[in-house]
Fold:
Amino acid sequence: MALIPQGPRTIAPGAVHVPGWLTRSAQRDLVAACRDWSRPPAGMTRVKTPGGRWMSVRQVCLGLHWTPYRYSRTHTDGSHVKAFPEELARLAVAAVATAYDDPGDYAPDIALINYYDSAARMGMHQDKEEHCDAPVVSLSLGDSCVFRFGNTENRNKPWTDVTLESGDLFVFGGESRFAFHGVPKTMPGTGPSDIDMGAGRLNITIRQSGIES
Ligand SMILES: O=C(O)CCC(=O)C(=O)O
Ligand SMILES: [Fe+2]
Structure:
């Protein structure tokens, strides 16, 4: 964590990094919530791509269940996906208001929680299964990572590598909503010791699905 709190930094038009946005106590609360959401039924699982490859992150979804590359109401274990909690909606609305001068109407209804062990990474991709171009809100907990924020054309350069630490917020919307992004690596052992989280990194990605309930 930086000794002097840093304000929002625009990485690309509509893509804003806010270091240290979550207090330690908010981080602890979110870690505890992630632990609850991870429990079965509809808990944290490994995810297989249609090509038959396993993603290296483990994932649990709230509101709608995402599997590459679509949303459904049913978890792969057959149970109904867990509800998207109102407190996450409030947090995400506050996040968008921090990132943008004009936050517009934001009505998030889904979240994906990714757990990265020391070997996990996420390839360059777009978040494009939503039927809506409202911003994506991303919160990081635990180990730091390199978050690669690319362009909207393809998964190649130009990109900007941003270090996301525990408590950081990253919002991408507007012109950057469909930018390719990924996590080429995490930095094991860099997470804070006072948020009641073991090894690894958690990322909570909150979105507005645009899918009728
Ligand atoms: O872990 C991250 O910071 C990014 C996660 C992500 O891009 C996703 O879940 O779509
Ligand atoms: Fe993503």
